[in-house]
Amino acid sequence: MIEITATVASLEQGRALLDAGVDTLYFGMEAFGLRLPHSFTWDEQSQLIDLAHAAGKKATVAVNGIMHPEKMKEIPDYLKFLKASGVDQITLGDPGIIYAMKKNNCEIPFLYDGQTLVTSSRQINFWADHGAIGAVVAREVPFAELEKMAPNLHVFGEVQVFGPTCIHQSKRPLLQNYFDYTKVDVDEVADRELFLSEPKKPETHYGIFEDSNGTHVFADNDLNLLPVLPKLATLSYDHWKLDGLFTPENDFVEVVEQFVEARHHLEKNIWSQAVNDHLTQEVRRWHPAKRGLDLGFFEVDPASVQ
What does the H/E/C string look like for the chain? Predict the structure, then answer.
């Protein structure tokens, strides 16, 4: 069975995503999680967990930020809260969180999310040996490498099939520094519609997002692996993640519905080129007009990746 995970931007969207057929809601608070569409309070997180469970679905909380000393002091209380709230699993990339769970007797099932570090079965299996129930495969891993990894994995590898790909993160608030220097009123700038272009390359279109974790720069185009989902399914990559960071709430639900429909066709073995074309067109229809879509690193020759 293919499991679909989707990010959540509000309680209302969480309900809509569950109604659309999502298996797992993914959310958290920006103090501990990276690049989230919304930072939820503890009470709101409890509500989302209950909402998912009432629908017979799961909740994953992002605890995948880099935990500097000041944040590590707050982690034990947060983990105790999550465990008491009945969260199904968390994502993490900092080994200190595994230590904190054991030390405070509040162990929670976790997916290892080391971002760009998760590029081999050896890496994933190492964390499986240390308790991980799965791992978030790096977006930079092309299909040829996924093929090599698949038969050697001891736990599942979650693959992002839709959404932005972060290519750089700075702990510094670069956007705020820029606004302060230029005297531009940040309130006059449309939220999450800022882009960077390389010198002498005006066609480049790197999205920017800033939160308390710093400034995040994203690839030219967002990821859409819907046209190649049969290849993933063939290799038993059956945990799909959709990231709605840059997609308006209602539109993101529409996008998710296309992947739910794709899952139905794959599981019933009724996939066709016509289905592919229709669903891909619908994804493009609901995707933000200012953002492009492509297959990311999927078809890249591994030999060309440095």
Answer: CCEEEEECCCHHHHHHHHHHCCCEEEEECCCCCCCCCCCCCHHHHHHHHHHHHHCCCEEEEEECCCCCHHHHCCHHHHHHHHHHHCCCEEEECCHHHHHHHHHCCCCCCEEECCHHHCCCHHHHHHHHHCCCCEEECCCCCCHHHHHHHHHHCCCEEEEEEEECCEEEEECCCHHHHHHHHHCCCHHHCCCCCCEEEECCEEEEEEEEEEECCEEEEECCEEEECHHHHHHHHHCCCCEEEECCCCCCHHHHHHHHHHHHHHHHHHHCCCCCHHHHHHHHHHHHHHCCCCCEEECCCCCCCHHHCC
Q: Which two tokens stand for residue 61?
A: 């909380």
Q: What is the pLDDT of residues 264-302, one digit of tens each?
A: 999 999 999 999 999 999 999 999 988 899 999 899 888
Q: What is the pLDDT of residues 176-224, one digit of tens each?
A: 676 766 677 666 555 567 777 778 777 777 777 777 777 777 778 999 9
